Amino acid sequence: MKDILIGVDIGGTAIKIGKFDLQGELLHKWEIPTDRTDKGSRILSDVHRSITEQTDWDDVRGIGFGVPGPVVDSVVLACVNLGWKHVDVAKEFSALLGRADVFVRASNDANVACSGEVFRGAAVGKKNVAMFTLGTGVGGGIMVDGTLVDGKNGAGGELGHLVVDFDHRLPCNCGKHGCLETVASATGIVNLAKLHLSQSDRESSLRHFSDFSAKRVFDCAKAGDGIAMRVVDEAADYLGRVTAGVMLSLNPEIVVFGGGVANAGRFLLDRIAIKADEYSAPFAKDTPIVGALLGNDAGIYGAAYLVR
Question: Which terminus of the chain is more exposed, N or C, with fewer CB under 10 A?
Fold first, then answer.
C-alpha cells in the first residue's frame, strides 16, 4: 500500500528530506549536502539516491520539492543559488524514478513553507493564508482557496521585492533599491541599524560592537536602546504596510511570519499587527498575525503537502 509522502526542501548548502504518513506525521528526516557544481546537475540524482537508501519506492505515493526560485507548473525558471535555469523537476525526477506511479511536484520554497504551516503548523484548517519568511532575504507565500499562487512567471508572493523605502537608501540583490528585503530581512535590519548609527550621534549599545546581527539589534531594542528601537519600529512599519496591502488585496484568514527574524516573537509581531491594522482600516482589520510553528521543518512539511 502506498502510504508514504516525501518532502524535500532544497537549500543552497543543504537539502532537507522528510518522510511522512498520509496524515502528515513526520516519520523520519535527514539532510544531505547540496552539490552545486556543474550548475547543480547532480542535485536531483543525489536526492533520488539518498531516498532510495532510506525508503522502498513501492511505498511512496508522491514526492514534493521546495526550491529557492520562481517555479511554474513544477518547472524551475531560474535559481541562482543552485545554478539551475529552466529545470523541469517533475519530468527529470520522474525519469530518475523510471516509474509513473509516484506523483512529483515542485514549488517555490516560501510557498512550500506556507503550505507546511497550513498542513501541520500555525495555519491548520485555513484556506486563505499569507506567509512572510524573514531570513537573509524576505520571501512570501500566498494560498488562496487552498491553492498556492505561483503566478504567470512564478513571482506570486515575491513580497520581499515590493519597494517600500522610497528614499531608495539601500540596494537589493534584485537590482532595485528600497525593496522590503533591504529594510526588514536579517541583513536589511543590520544595514538599517548601521545607517541610523551613521546619521546620529546618539549613544547606543550597538556602537560597542564592531559587527552585530539582527538578533543583537532586537536584544538591544528589548533592553530599551533608543536607536535599536527606532530600527525595529521602522522595519515593523514597512512590514505592516506590505501586510496591509496583502490584507486588502487577498483578505487572508491569517498572516504567518517565519524565519530567523520572526524569532523575535511578539516583540516584533505586535508592532507589525498595529501598523497592519492602521494601514488596512477599516476594511481588513483584526486579521490574526502569528508566528510560524514548524521552524526549519516547514519546507519538508509543505513539500509533502504539495502531493498530499
Answer: N
pLDDT at site 118: 94
- Residue 258 domain boundaries: 125-292
Whole-number Å distance between alpha carbons of 148 and 161 = 19
- What's 48's domain CATH number? 3.30.420.40
Indicate the pLDDT class of residue 103, thresholds 50, 70 and 90: very high
> How is residue 129 written as a grid cell?
493564508
Judge whether 81 and 12 are in contact, CB under 8 Å: yes
Say if residue 68's pLDDT is above 90. Answer: no
Asked if 114 and 129 touch (Cβ cutoff 8 Å), the reply is yes
Sequence-distant (≥ 6) Cβ neighbours of residue 233 within 8 angstroms? 271
Nearest of 258, 265, 270 to residue 219 by alpha carbon: 265
Report the amino acid identity of residue 10: I
Closest C-alpha to 256, from 101, 124, 60: 124
Residues 263 and 282 in one domain: yes
Q: Are residues 227 and 252 in the same domain?
A: yes
How many angstroms separate the CA atoms of 220 and 228, rounded? 6
Q: Among 30-39, 171-180, 221-230, where is mean pLDDT lowest? A: 171-180
Span 174-204, pLDDT tens digits: 889 999 999 999 999 999 999 999 998 899 9
| Listed residue (229, 234, 225, 233) closest to 205, CA to CA | 225
Nearest to 141 by CA among 152, 151, 129, 123: 129
